[in-house]
């Protein structure tokens, strides 16, 4: 049964693909279907691309929600389509082809899919079923002696926080104020995500937004308090609705070491006689893990180490998972050890320094002091004895489980056999959960890279590209990020951008990185560890602490020491450097960091490497675009007059607008220059066409006019020689309309002009009485005929007169079927009596812009000259 639907249509343009992805993502997240969002986004991206890019039609996207999943339909409007009667595997596109790949993805990812044809449309649909979620049960624990009860503080505080449907805090009780330091009025209305430190890797486990949408959730995370520190808490979330049907989430939180107050007890296996008969059907996995079992890998691994520690009465336990080639083990869960320091750290199994030699067989170490380094994860932990057993599936090493104690000689072969028996019960479930996590991470990574590529391809601005690189990695892949750029082979790496998930730490991090040498620009692909930031931060914190102690500072940290320690904690974890290589040259480095001894997991580094390759190409494209734009602007500026001369007794104003983005010069041009004493030349012209070819003729015309005029040629001779020069350009020639004139200011305040109008819109003369009349007669344009017979006309501008010269971008301004035309321009000029030359040009431009709502598609040039009125005595 369909319970909700959402639909949208998208135009046949490339940007519609990103818009469609966002539409599907927002719709499914709003429905609470976060488990299938990444798969739906990837499939929608491919199908919409087929429609708007390959088929070249609009795409209709329809999302249908049901109780067990979601169905997405994508339809195109291709007008002619042959319906396949006998489809075969050969008819389906291969994975390397651009079109048809969406169907292969549907077959690989979707629960069900299909194609439906109508006379006007093709529908491709896919169904994604929701994964089954386990349902929790109630249970009770036995009566225990007082000394076995969980330990808490004198006063147990339970923070009660209510979150509305948008994720914002609606209620915040007194215990929440005491635990986290924020008064209720400071947090009400703010998103819980502003305070929650959520241990979440995209695509592998439930995020906080998804957790708040579940009917019930229980687990651990952190809350960042008013003092900036993260307090580990154990939380129980319950989704409720009020009498009006408005949903919200009630969150109960206690300190993590007081989790027994909220934690759901594990159901113990039945021991009564009635249940003994059913004991054969009890799942050994559930006996060890408890029911319900965690539904995500991290929860399962954490439950495993806690059960293993309790089973052998140990002080600590750990679980490591093997890489696919079984050469390394990665720390994934610990208890009783500093997990933040160890998580995702890797140790070799058989070779290399710090190797883990007892991974493939059960092993008991009675005293680690006698064999230091036998279990690298326990180095410096204070543990003396340890038992380790392998996790194997079909004979392949998949991990290692260990339990340790602080005293020597605690364990024997009997404990090893018990632990191995438990490891055998859970190995298959752990491996299945690990493979499921890898698959979700792969799909999440694919969606992440699709969107990252789309964002990077959408800009050619260098600074914006740098910002996007950092914002895509923080906090998704790393806690902080720094981008170094290299201008050329002889330049040193330059720190161009720094970002931290906590904005207050950016300045301190930038100051620290600025004081140390940048990483070496090595072109070798892959991530390499960079220890310099952590070492520098440690030394800076040590020096600052010593100075404060020498001054006898109070126990409260000063602002300087607090900032230094904060920066040291920010870069205290693993820092890796990935080269940015484009066109076989290292153009920079992408540096990623974790806080407080954290490590990167290999899958995240591989994803970061994929991102760095895309980012490097985008950054280099932005660099090339910037260089070419700088060259283009420089060349274009050389085609414009360097400045307008001051003409005694004449006001002059020029307004120039080149059509097209990034163009400073087009086919229109103007010039005003001195010829000799008290004689000035002016010109305004329009070259046929646009782009570089038109701009080249523009430069030829402007420079030829100046040269010929200063050689003493009159107007007709100047234009005739320019006409010959244009025709000499052959295939590169363009015909040209040109108004050229020479101006002589007179002692009586008037000005004499001699003009030649070669195919150009006629200049208009505005007299003091408001009459407007053409100031020249039309003659043939240039660049078409070889033999031209041109003549010049003489006019005299009296004080108060205005001569207006424009290009056809002014007179041919259109709005639908209407055009401004010569008559419209005449009407505008008639209203300009008494205005200065600058005011006349501005009024004409304003009238042209207001004539139509759409931006101008043609170049425009306006040259206005006015003879000022003589002052009365």
From TrEMBL:
PROSITE patterns the UniProt entry points to: PAS
Keywords recorded for this protein, A-Z: Hydrolase
Source superkingdom: Bacteria
Coiled-coil regions, chain positions: none
Domain PAS: 160-190
One Pfam family linked to the record: SpoIIE
InterPro entries from the UniProt entry: Bact_Sigma-Reg (IPR052016), GAF (IPR003018), GAF-like_dom_sf (IPR029016), HATPase_C_sf (IPR036890), HATPase_dom (IPR003594), PAS (IPR000014), PAS-like_dom_sf (IPR035965), PAS_4 (IPR013656)
Protein name: SpoIIE family protein phosphatase
Organism: Streptomyces crystallinus
